[in-house]
Amino acid sequence: MITQVGWEKDGLEQALQRANHEVARLEESRSRARHYGVLAWENLKWYLVLAVAGFLAGPTVWALTQYYAVAPLMARGRPIRLGPDPAAWPEVGESRVSVEASLRPGEILRIKERFLQASDEGVARRTRFVLDWEIAFTSVACGLIELVELAHPGPAGEYRVTLSSSDDPHIELAIASVPADSSLVLRPRFLAGVIQRAGERLVIRRHWRFLRWQAWVSGQFRFFEFIGPCRLVVVGSRGVRVERLGDREGLPATARRTNQDSTIGFTPNLDYRPVRAETFWGYYRGMNPLFDDVFAGRGLYVVQETATEGPAAKAGAFWSGVWNAVLKVFGL
Prior knowledge:
alpha+beta, Double-stranded beta-helix, 7-stranded antiparallel sheet, 6-stranded antiparallel sheet, 5 helices
């Protein structure tokens, strides 16, 4: 009996020793892990602090640098002027949610299908796959493909076509009449259609400006000048407005500033240059781009009432920004 009790006591002591060894091993392992953790923190803590600070303050520092250092420097230089004073001025009609265009004998209308609402019976119709094969990339990028071509079928009379946006209630349309010996510089993404003489090519003059600071500032290196005679159907968010620049009583020719995202087009004789946005807060909060457009001289420019992000905005802000940047480089 005494021998059995001794064996049990020895077994318990051995089990206790094993438990103590295991606890000591775990404590040593925990101490080693704590040691490595403290050592890693001492070596990396400032890098981590800088990384967190950069993540939190980086966008603000970048915006401050862009606004107060880069923008004033980049906006210096002579303005861009694409042509001389025209012999006649374009006329832009009042914008409406729905506008009525007239087709006279010998005229055709090429329009994006989503803007065609109604037309008189008897108008000849066919599909026009590309607005102009000479600027096929521009036509594709701006959606000027698979157009509906409406033609006046007879030698006399006048046909009516009603135009309106079928997918965006905020879009308004206006018709810009460009007479002979006149022209209008236009961003094609604001162009919904063209009315011209049948059998005549739409004349589009392209201007490249790779070596100008203003082009690098605005990101737009190509400008499209639509030569008259023609009528252009332009679209804008919440409306299309025309600003006329000229002599005011007792004052020299004025200059006007507008949001860069709102600019639709302008007459080529105007001096065009980008300038820094008026307020840092508007730029920082994303309510205004870094640069505004300034037009000076005697002429007119066309803007939409509210700036829009473009058709790719719903696909995500990043890809919308990338796509809009690509279009802007090519003047679209």
